[in-house]
Amino acid sequence: MNKKWYVKLAVTNIKTNGLMFRPYLFTCMVIIALFYTINSLVNAHALKSISGGNFTIDVMKFGSLLFTVLSLFFLMYANSFIFKKRKKEMGLYNLLGLEKKHIRKILILETALIALFTMIGGIAVGLVLNQAVGIAMSAMMKVPLTVSMISIPALLKTIGIFIMVFSIILVFNLKQIHSVSVIELMKGAQIGEREPKAKLVLAMLGGVLLFSGYLLSFTVKDPKLDISAMITAIVLVVAATYLLFIAASIVLLKMLRKKNSIYYNKNNFTLISTMIFRMKQNAVGLANIAVLSTATLIVMTTTISLYLGVNTMLNNSFQFDVSITNPAENIPEQQQLQTFIDNNKNRYDVDTTSAASYRGGQFAADLTGDGKEDFFLILPLEDFNTLTNEDISLAADEVMLLKDKETAGLQSINLNEESFKVKSMVEDLPIDTALADSVDRNWIYVIAPLTGEFAQTLDLENSLTMYQDFNLQGDADAVNDFSHAIAEEADKIGYLDVEAKSIYKESLLVRFGGLLFLGIFISAVLVAETALMIFYKQISEGYDDRNRFAIMKKVGMSEAEIMKTIRKQTLIMFFAPLTVALLHLGAGLPLVTKIIGIAAMDNWLVVLGSGLFAAIIFTVIYGATYLFTEKSYKKIIKH
Question: Which of 459, 487, 505 is the last residue of a domain?
Answer without folding.
Answer: 505
